[in-house]
Structure prediction request, 79 residues.
Amino acid sequence: MVSLSHAFRNPKWSAFVENQGIQSDRYSDVLIRGGVAHLLNEDLQVDFNLGASFKNTPSRIFVTAGASYRFDFHVDKQK
Prediction:
């Protein structure tokens, strides 16, 4: 998988493009997807992407949305 991302002037927004290759004895394909992500707060991010396959047997086009949450258990040591 190869991924390229770019943060905009507003650091809460970013865009990304990803390329993924799948290879097995029964199925092989190359997928490409692109989308945007928005940081709602310091720990919560939502994203939306659109993707497609290069193969047409079968052809795949998909839309996904997701969310991720950061659990920050780090505590700085006092000096």
About this structure: The chain has a mean pLDDT of 91.
